[in-house]
Amino acid sequence: MADLSQPASSDLGGLPVAPADIHAAAATIRGAVVETPCGYSRTLSNICGCDLWLKFENLQFTSSFKERGALNRLTALTPEERARGVVAMSAGNHAQGVAYHAKRLGFPATIVMPVGTPMVKVENTKHHGAEVVVTGATLEEAAAFARSHGEARGMIFVHPYDDPLVIAGQGTVGLEMLKAVPELDTLVVPIGGGGLISGIAIAAKSLKPSLRIVGVEAWLYPSMYNAIHGGTLPSRGDTLAEGIAVKSPGRITTEIVRRLVDDIALVNEAELERAVATLISIEKTVVEGAGAAGLAAIMSDPSRFAGQKVGLVLSGGNIDTRLIASVLTRELAREGRLTQLSLDIPDRPGQLAAVAALLAEAGANIIEVSHQRTFSDLPAKATLLQLVIETRDSAHLDEVMAKLGASGLSARCT
Fold it and tell me: Under 8 Å CB-to-CB from 326, ≥6 apart: which residues?
């Protein structure tokens, strides 16, 4: 994590979005968008060394804060514009917000989503009644197609973040957090294009100028970090946090972030996975990679937040169940609770039973068993035994390995 070059200002003059715009947005969306809980987490506070409150935006109807800005923008359309319909590009959450509220308000929506968008987000968007076009390798390519597609059909383009009405809608998250917990002194917010953190920063600093705002990006997509610092870190690859995988942040949002945001943290994929798994394990709440980015930043650098009263935005919960299973399994492996072992054993009766008995005595549970006789360089009278075992933790795994070694077995973690 790096400090910005100068402390963030609390001067809100001249910004493209004013605090009054956010209060107006709150009135506009009231009753149509959930005022989600902002609850204290005792266990996570103990783990992270700070007082931690979670804003559960994953509990919105479409499982994301994006509904707020989408509804505020759609409500401002004239009857003639509504009749023409809207078009948007999105990696998933903005798509669902636009699709759901356009259908609720009674006009058509077309959503362009980049290739690689999680299927759960594509299917949910279709379920909300929108026409979905999947094209473009990146969000930027999808945006270019959406603009040309919309212009050819006279549709209104609804930008996911670089729009004052969208930013104002997202800022209502900040109003609600400080209403629920006025004593907060730091807010940690994911950054993709910058709409959420921009709106929250304006709302929060208008109510409490001393408040510290920390943004979080994935290491694979440090676009706002680059924009603020003049950096050239590359943006590339597949990230668990596809919701904030933006190569080019907004023009409006960059101006706001530059003035109001104090820090920007970069988190890697292992840290994102750990945060997703931790929220499921401790809070029993499902959060996508982007939504867990804030917790990833705190857990990876707890000294930066020590002793503070921190508000953390769980921005969304749209994640494929298969991906959840993969994340949880990988975290078990990192903790030493799930391990693949390879053993060279004689190919004769009773050897597997002997190994199983030793593991049982050591308190390890066998999950999978595989014999490999053909595709190995072992002698013909030997076989490669591969096991996946479950242990309590890394210390227990060490005990199991020691017991196997003491019995004359050469076991390797693979």
Answer: none
The pair of three-digit structure tokens given for residue 375, joined into one six-digit string: 């595709």
Mean pLDDT of 344-357: 89
What pTM value is reported for the model?
A: 0.89
- How far is it between the farthest Cα atoms of the chain? 81
277-325 pLDDT tens trace: 999 999 999 999 999 999 999 999 999 999 999 999 999 999 989 999 9
Size (the chain), residues: 414
Coil/strand/helix, residue 296: helix
Beta strand ranges found along 322-402 (DSSP E)? 338-346, 365-372, 382-390
CA dihedral in degrees (64, 194, 47, 59; nearest 10)? -10
The strand pair at 156-157 and 263-267 is best described as unpaired
User: Residue 390 pLDDT more than 50?
Assistant: yes
CB hemisphere CA count around 55 (13 angstroms): 30
DSSP annotation of 8: P
What pLDDT digit, counting tens, does each position of 53-111 carry?
999 999 999 999 999 999 999 999 999 999 999 999 987 899 999 999 999 999 999 99
State the pLDDT confidence band at 5, using cuts at 50, 70 and 90.
Answer: very low
DSSP structural state of residue 281:
I
Q: What stretches of 120-260 adopt beta strand conformation (E)? A: 131-134, 156-157, 186-190, 212-218
> Which residue reads 């070694």 in tokens?
405
> How far apart are alpha carbons 405 and 88 in whole angstroms?
60
Q: Which residue has the tokens 């390798």?
A: 137
- The percentage of residues in the chain with a pLDDT greater than 90, rounded to a whole number, is 79
Among all chains, which residue has been given the structure tokens 């597609």?
149
Cα gap 216→198, rounded to integer Å: 13
